């Protein structure tokens, strides 16, 4: 039997946060309810960030109240600060995620503060979440390239990942936010990061702008990483990363993993159903780049 690899579904959050169309809560709930039948262990369904910054996620409270939760599935929510944590607790999120950047330019654009300030902001969030028994995941954005600062040296994500792990996050997800990383850059980045954080506590989060996400997943597998974030239908991008396209499509990663003899516990037919639903939700007339 092949090795087990987990796909962490992020479509309802990373995917939908970037759609230009205001997606009704009912459509989001329908997507999540379909995903809940597919066999995922973790699904990121909400983002309790400022609605002034990401209006697409403003209805996250209502979404979490209306989904039908499947037993054994952890429903995750993004939280940038203590207010976000408060909202995530009120919505009964099963786990939260904090997020920082390996580069200063993206930190300023996405969080309106420096990398150092972002750690000061999330430290009490992680502390309180752990105190109340909520698992915390940590994202590092721009692990190889930043839309504002250009190339990012491997030492930067290594340093930031180590700090997140020291705060007490249970897993660090390494984000190629722009989706243009080359496998060689991912290799160099992972050479540095795995010195600080063991592969069993890492995940790969590849956007697929340049169509190399699966190649980058292959490299990450060589390092022992066994968790990959993906979005059904290849939804998404980041509103504060100009030029970034969607996350690598869940169905594409699943098909490739199966072709490599890996196991995922996912039901490919339901994943395909969710992917079709996700594609039908996309803005029919995306703004040209
Ligand atoms: P700010 O403007 O510097 O700070 O934003 P603020 O504290 O003055 O907040 C502004 C307003 O938002 C205030 O309202 C706050 O109360 C309110 P006002 O007083 O003006 O009426 N506010 C909130 N409301 C609801 N929930 C909250 C909340 N916090 C503040 N939690 C802040 C700083 C961090 C809030 C802002 O920059 C923000 O929300 N940024 C998030 C941007 C974002 O969500 N980006 C996308 C997610 S990250 C991503 O996609 C990358 C990832 O996928 C990995 C990868 O691919 O790299 C994870
Ligand atoms: Mg992302």
How many distinct folded domains?
Answer: 1
Bound molecules: 3-hydroxy-3-methylglutaryl-coenzyme A, magnesium ion
CATH architecture assignment: Alpha-Beta Barrel
Shape: globular
Total helical elements = 11
* Beta-strand content: 15-25%
Mean pLDDT: 95
Oligomeric assembly? single chain
InterPro entries: Aldolase_TIM, HMGL, PYR_CT
Domain Pyruvate carboxyltransferase: 5-272
GO molecular function: hydroxymethylglutaryl-CoA lyase activity; metal ion binding
Protein name: Hydroxymethylglutaryl-CoA lyase
Quickly list its features.
TIM Barrel, binds 3-hydroxy-3-methylglutaryl-coenzyme A, HMGL, 289 residues, metal-binding, lyase, alpha/beta, binds magnesium ion, 11 helices
Describe this structure in words.
There is one protein chain. The chain is built from eleven helices and ten strands. α7 (155-167) packs across α8 and α8 (183-196) runs parallel beside α9 (213-222). It is globular. The longest helix has 17 residues, at 115-131. With 289 residues, it is of the alpha/beta class. Magnesium ion is lined by residues 14, 175, 177, 205, 207, 238, 247.
């Amino acid at each position: 039997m092949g090795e087990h690899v987990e796909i962490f579904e992020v479509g309802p959050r990373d995917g939908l946060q970037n759609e230009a169309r205001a997606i009704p809560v009912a459509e989001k709930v329908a997507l999540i309810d379909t995903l809940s039948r597919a066999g995922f262990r973790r699904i990121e369904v909400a983002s309790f960030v400022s609605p002034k910054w990401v209006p697409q996620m403003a209805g996250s409270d209502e979404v979490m109240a209306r989904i039908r939760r499947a037993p054994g599935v952890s429903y995750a929510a993004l939280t940038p600060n203590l207010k976000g944590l408060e909202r995530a607790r009120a919505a009964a999120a099963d786990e939260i995620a904090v997020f920082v950047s390996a580069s200063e330019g993206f930190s300023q654009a996405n969080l309106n503060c420096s990398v150092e300030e972002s750690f000061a902001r999330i430290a009490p969030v992680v502390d309180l979440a752990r105190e109340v028994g909520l698992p915390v995941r940590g994202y590092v954005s721009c692990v190889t390239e930043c839309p504002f600062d250009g190339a990012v040296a491997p030492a930067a994500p290594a340093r930031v990942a180590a700090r997140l792990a020291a705060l007490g996050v249970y897993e660090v997800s390494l984000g190629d936010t722009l989706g243009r990383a080359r496998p060689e850059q991912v290799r160099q980045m992972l050479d540095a990061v795995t010195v600080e954080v063991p592969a069993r506590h890492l995940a790969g989060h590849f956007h697929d702008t340049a169509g190399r996400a699966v190649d980058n997943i292959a490299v990450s597998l060589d390092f022992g990483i066994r968790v990959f974030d993906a979005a059904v239908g290849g939804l998404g991008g980041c509103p504060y990363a100009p030029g970034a396209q969607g996350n690598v499509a869940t169905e594409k990663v699943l098909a490739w993993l199966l072709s490599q003899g890996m196991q995922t516990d996912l039901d490919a037919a339901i994943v395909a159903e969710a992917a079709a639903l996700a594609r039908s939700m996309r803005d029919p007339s995306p703004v040209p780049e």
